[in-house]
Amino acid sequence: MQSFIEEEEKTYEVVPFTWPKGYKADGVYVGLRKNPEKKDMGWLYSEVPAQAAGTYTTNQFQAAPTKLTKQTINKEHLLQGIVMNTANANSVTGKQGMIDALQMQAWAAEKMAVDSDLVGVASTGVIGEPLPMNLIKKGVDKLQLLDNFYVTEAVLTTDKHTKTISTQIELDGQTVTISGFCKGSGMIHPKMATMLGFVVTDAKIADGALQGMLSQEVDSTFNQITVDGDTSTNDMVVTMANGLAGNEPIENDDSANAQTFLNAYNAVLTQLAQDIAADGEGSTKLVEVNVENAANHADAQKVAKAVVGSNLVKAAIFGEDANWGRIIAAIGQTNAQVDVDHTSVWLNDLPLVTDSHSADFDEAVMKQTLSENKITILVDLHSGNATGQAWGCDLTYNYVRINATYRS
């Protein structure tokens, strides 16, 4: 069996997490969480207004801060800062929710000494509870324009750890840095999910080009992860590009500079997406599903996400049971074009199904490979030459425990 994805020559370097030129950040504890050792408010700031783009939850009950950030970015596609909190989603909170989001924006803008129309707002946590504005004001008063990474902690909910990555590329003789962080562990089934993702870069992007780049790359990264099939009300991915690296403006086209940037940008989004999938609530294994020989890319993506999102597949992986019928059933539930007589499946490179029949595999060997921390499923649909990919995790007893006591 050949590798699913041919290795491309990397034009980027993964480096220790750092802020690109011109960015400041901070995170503090103000009492939104019960644990004083965990930060619960933070912000990001750029020394100059940055090109901005965002993608947002498709849940009909879109939270006030998500709506506000979308409206803010859509005005001029510029941001200079983002203020964020955890523990309270400010979602399904009526008219007061938007009033509070606007106040949070105004307080942060005043502290940053920028216009309110240049500040985004992000909240995550319990749905339906009013935002405790006395604590939000306390948090804004405490936040400073520093070089620390505490903001990456300040957005976490049930996450077990922070999720960060930085890459660097060379453009026009200048070093360009792209850094991202995110939160997400449960209610993950984008478009979008209970996840917040933030990517900042000092690259100079041509006016209007960044939104197309983000939408393009999110579709094959964040939108291809699932933990539990539920989408939330607050999700967004926001990118800021302040241009301080000094490169020539990058257009969203096929130029060498654009492709170099997109290669590194995709690596950041892909790693963050995988980190969310691997950190799924209660999970013990990262699951990657690759689909090849599909009729088209849409079919390949659909099948990959159906398999990784199947509760029966996820439960079988947790139980280390090579029950391939679960995988076949998940494939068949889609409307993708499938050669039902010649579909094949591999599990960690071991043949599981050949031409829609059970391969001659050793149960003990399969159980052993299913005990690994990462499980890779490859599906060959024998219907074309398109490929797709998705990520998720196993479904464990602990997932139920976490979500049965989420507000406790």
Q: Give the full name of the CATH homologous superfamily of the largest domain.
A: L-amino peptidase D-ALA esterase/amidase
Distance between the termini: 48 Å
The CATH C-level class name of the largest domain: Alpha Beta
Order of helices and strands: EEEHEHEHHEEEHEHEHHHEEEHEEH
Low-confidence stretches: 1-7, 186-190
What percent of residues adopt helix (DSSP H or I)?
Answer: 25-40%
Characterize the biggest β-sheet.
Answer: 9 strands, mixed
Query: Can you name the CATH architecture of the largest domain?
Result: 4-Layer Sandwich
CATH fold label of the largest domain: L-amino peptidase D-ALA esterase/amidase
Overall number of strands: 15
Strand content: 25-35%
How would you state the average pLDDT, rounded? Answer: 90
Structural domain count:
2
Oligomer: single chain
Describe this entry's structure for a reader.
By secondary structure, this protein is of the alpha+beta class. Helix content is 30%, strand content 25%. It has two domains: 13-278, L-amino peptidase D-ALA esterase/amidase (4-Layer Sandwich); 286-404, Ubiquitin-like (UB roll), CATH 3.10.20. The strands form two sheets. Strands 1, 2, 3, 4, 5, 6, 7, 8 and 9 form a nine-stranded mixed sheet that branches. Helix 2 (94-112) packs parallel to helix 3 and helix 7 (297-309) crosses helix 9. The radius of gyration is 22 Å and the shape is globular. The N and C termini lie far apart (48 Å). Substrate binds at residues 157, 183, 194, 281, 403, 408. InterPro entries: Arg_biosynth_ArgJ (IPR002813), ArgJ-like_dom_sf (IPR016117), ArgJ_beta_C (IPR042195). GO terms for molecular function: L-glutamate N-acetyltransferase activity; L-glutamate N-acetyltransferase activity, acting on acetyl-L-ornithine as donor. It catalyses: N(2)-acetyl-L-ornithine + L-glutamate = N-acetyl-L-glutamate + L-ornithine; L-glutamate + acetyl-CoA = N-acetyl-L-glutamate + CoA + H(+).
